[in-house]
Amino acid sequence: MFAMLSYPVRIALIAALGGFLFGFETVVISGAEQTLEKLWNLSKWEQGFTVASSLFGTVLGSLVAAFPAKRYGRKKSLQVIAVFFIVAALGCAMTSLWGFFICFRIIGGLAVGASSVIAPMYIAEISPANLRGRLTGSFQVNIVLGIVVAFLTNYLISRLQLADSWRWMLGIMVVPAVLFFALLFAIPESPRWLILGNKEQTALPILQRLGETNISAAVGSIRDSVKEHQEKLFQRRYSKPILYAMLLAMFNQLSGINAILYYSPRIFQLAGYDKSQALSQSIFLGVANLVATLLAMTVIDKIGRKTLLIIGSIGMIVFLSLVARALSGDLSGNSNLLLYLIGFIVFFAFSQGAVIWVFISEIFPNAVRSQGGSLGSTTHWVMAAIITSVIPSILENGKGGVNVAGGHWAFVFFAAMMVLQLIFIWRVMPETKGKSLEQIQKDLGIA
Q1: Contacts made by residues 328-336, CB under 8 angstroms, sequence distance 24+
Q2: Which of 353, 344, 351, 314 is nearest to 326 (CA)?
Q3: Secondary structure of residue 102 in the 3-state scheme
Q4: Mind listing the pLDDT tens digit for each residue in 264-300?
Q5: How many Cβ atoms are within 10 Å of 16's Cβ, its own excluded?
Q6: What 3-state DSSP class applies to 96?
Q7: Dist. CA 238–CA 30, nearest whole Å
Q8: CA-to-CA distance for 134 and 115, rounded, in angstroms?
Q9: Do 25 and 88 touch, CB atoms closer than 8 A?
Q10: How far apart are CA 409 and CA 44, in angstroms?
Q11: pLDDT tens digit sequence for 170-200
């Protein structure tokens, strides 16, 4: 069946497997974090740092990803990322020391951060304009699929009641990581990167296999767009894509999405679920995330990025407000918490989740795409690290119990941020659907 897909689709799906590992790595800790807290007798700050340590790695990974992607190519960089995922999975599963565990979590974060820059960039550069939204969005589909699988394996492993079950939860990621590494040998290098590096003869057969009908015109357009590829990102002419990418990335995390995914068992405990029930409820969030993302992928190239974001913003405002109300002190409302969180996840996945990596990968011109992608991803992960670090202190009351009032005000804040996002999307953000990467550059006035 895989062989029946067109060549661009096949190689895009292979690159998008980096998204599966991205999703798995980022949330798998949710099933083990309370066990690790007791195992190493961690304070609230140390617990927040343990969960967020991967995110600190993602910040560094997204910051440095532009350099290897530009110098050594997208393909080789993805192969190194796969190795990092393998090392992180084995290291976290085998170590018994908190310090080493943190180090391996950071290595996994490096892989996540770098993959969030390079994989969408690669997919955008090999995709036809009419398929770019869906193919680049396949990276997000794989992220949420990885999240679902992580929640599911966490639950199943917890039911087996194995000794040191947390090791199995974290170590099982080695299987998809090895598969990803092996499949990457089957993809070509990005033709845009090859042309940027004056390797046009190598790029020509790749462009042909990708379905480009007018090879000479395509090469000329790409060459013109990268003729000043030594330019720095931070200059006035690139102010618009910088602003758009940074704001969209900030709002992505200010929705509270990673805080909810990382600490979903704790949040469900606010509603009175026991630990086993809390893990099973998390699976519903993951499935809702996947279904909504798949739906978004079917329409992203038809109704556009901006429309999806407007719809999603309105829905997130409603459901985040309902969660805040359920945690306002009237505990009888908590019975609906799962439904409210699923509603939020659906609207997030249908909008921000589906759009962010597509938009960041296409808004920057070829000349600075690797730098711009790195900036957008770094902004995203800095916000994620900050929010994830402080959530344990907000959700606990200082005596090891839950703090319902803290949860209430956290969701009030998230809802308010989505109001600001709606204003930004409606009034400022441009639409990019159906345009070549070079045409987007011209429309922004930076051709």
Answers
A1: 328/408, 329/404, 329/405, 329/408, 331/272, 331/404, 334/270, 334/271, 334/272, 335/271
A2: 344
A3: helix
A4: 766 666 666 666 566 677 778 788 888 888 888 888 8
A5: 27
A6: coil
A7: 38
A8: 18
A9: yes
A10: 19
A11: 999 999 999 999 999 999 998 888 887 888 8
Distance (Å, whole) CA 236 – CA 437: 20
Closest to 352 (Cα-Cα) out of 382, 320, 312: 312
3-state class (DSSP) for residue 402: strand
Q: Which residues, 6+ apart, have CB-to-CB distance to 285 below 8 Å?
A: 151, 260, 261, 264, 341, 342, 345
Helical segments of 199-336, H only: 200-209, 215-225, 239-254, 257-262, 264-270, 275-303, 305-326
Of 226, 16, 242, 277, nearest in space to 122 by CA:
16
Whole-angstrom CA distances from 16 to 11, 214, 353, 360, 370 are 9, 27, 15, 15, 17
CA torsion angle for 196, 16, 176, 76 (degrees, to 10)? Answer: 0
Angular region, 335: left φ>0, alpha ψ -120 to 50, beta rest: alpha
3-state SS assignment for residue 172: coil
Q: How confident is the model at residue 333 (pLDDT cuts 50, 70, 90)?
A: very low
